[in-house]
Each structure stands twice: as structure tokens, then as C-alpha cells.
Amino acid sequence: xxxxxxxxxxxxxxxxxxxxxxxxxxxxxxxxxxxxxxxxxxxxxxxxxxxxxxxxxxxxxxxxxxxxxxxxxxxxxxxxxxxxxxxxxxxxxxxxxxxxxxxxxxxxxxxxxxxxxxxxxxxxxxxxxxxxxxxxxxxxxxxxxxxxxxxxxxxxxxxxxxxxxxxxxxxxxxxxxxxxxxxxxxxxxxxxxxxxx
Length: 197
Known about the structure:
By secondary structure, the chain is α/β, with parallel strands linked by helices. The protein has helices at 31-43, 79-88, 122-131, 152-155, 162-185, 187-194, and strands spanning 12-16, 48-49, 54-61, 64-71, 96-102, 110-114, 137-142.
């Protein structure tokens, strides 16, 4: 069964996952924030604090009304701000797209899916618990496995390496393109366009 976002008149909530504050800004775990910053630039929007517990930016992407949200909580507590923002804007789980880092994909790989487990990602686990369902869209940005015996929990809180940073702006742009394609043409078209890269 194919899953697509609600009809064109409905708003879509784009959630980027990360940790707030300058200390974490360049971390691998913050790639969701970086993608949302790119999308905000494209739609000419600015983030403002919102009572739902997130930094929010509203605008139009691919002809649709979108709400961009960066939770102001730490990653492991993302669920509260996501469900609070979704409730405020009256957007159901099927209209939510979560953009996050993914250890199980090579660096820069982009994969899109609907539903599924958290795969050890505490941000997703928190969102699923708060929404009461795992049926929402995910756009996964590969950050690769940690080298050697490094603890994944330490690895995700490190900044991208120098070689990774050379490609980062390009990869962030591609991930934003994938989100735009999902909104414009649906999940299957976005998967076909980006999963072969």
C-alpha cells in the first residue's frame, strides 16, 4: 500500500530533529535542523519561538502550506514539542514528516519511508510515544556507523569530519530536495528519485 500526505489543501508539518543550542549546532545528530534551515531559506521564512515547544516557521513549499518545527527540547524528549505543535496546527500524524540522522546508512544517503520502528533513535522513539503511533513519514539522512569501537552515542554528538563537511552543503540540499519531492509528487516518486543515489 502506498502512503501519501493528506490532500493539497491540508498543511504539512516538517520536523527537523536535533539538540538546541550552539554547542550542538554542527553535530551529526543535528542534521534535521540543518535541513530545515535550508528549507526555511528556500521559502523565505524565519524561525520564531512557538508555544507548542518548538521553533516554528510557516510558508509554502511546492505549492503547499508547510509548518517547519525544530523542537526546543533535547533530542530524547522531541515527542512533546512535536505533538504539541501538531495539535496547535491541527495536523494529524499522517501529515507529519520527520527529518533525522541515520546511523545505518552511508554518509549522505537519503531514504524516505512511512511508519516503522525507531531503530534505536531516541528522538523517533519519543515522537512515536507522544503521537501514540509510528505512522508518520521519515526522511533519513545517512551519517554512517562510528569508526572502530566508538560508542554511537558519542559519535552522533560529534561534528561532521572535515571530508564530510566538504560535501555537507550539497547533501543537505539534496535532502531538502527529497522533502520537496515528497510534498510535491508523493512518497513513491521521492523514493524512486533519491534511493538510487
